[in-house]
Amino acid sequence: MNELTLTPIAYISNDFSEKFGIPRQGGLIPELKSRIIFTPEYRDPEALRAIETYSHLWLIWGFSANKDRDFHPTVRPPMLGGNTRIGVFATRSPYRPNPLGLSAVLLEKVEKTADDGVILHIAGADLLDGTPIYDIKPYLPYVDSYPAAIGGFTDTLDYAARELRVEIADEMLAEIPEEKRASLLKVLAMDPRPTYQN
Length: 198
Fold this sequence. Notes:
- The chain is of the alpha+beta class.
- Helix content is 12%, strand content 25%.
- The model has no long low-confidence stretch (mean pLDDT 85).
């Protein structure tokens, strides 16, 4: 098998209508809530039997909003200031030969609905609204967690020092639904601008 055709089994539903502001990695902002809504042909509840017994899931998904689909062997990670080039396979850059992403998310709730079948409520996703999901697998701590792992250039970055202090006037904050305030504040504190736009 030289080629593989992928068909979305589901789509993400959340408040991110554009790429700007989406966390740089899954799990960075656990306050962010999303829903996974399955396509009609994959809404069989039997396919999700026992999924609620897991706390976390791996999502395999597609970078559907990328305009540049050409292969580039090196990329400039924003966390390195946007000027240092490293190999695409040494990064999680969205610009890849096969535009696939992988995210670990928290499974908060499994909801059965009349219109959309079973919906998975998740937290911590780093995905654009409408992102196609190609597969879902359970996160297994006994094989998926490596506490002694080395994180390459990311080990040298001080993430806490990069967080901004965010202040929003009370009258402005009142305009934001209460259940979305914490995630908005965290997204802004993580400074969604590329690091080279300091």
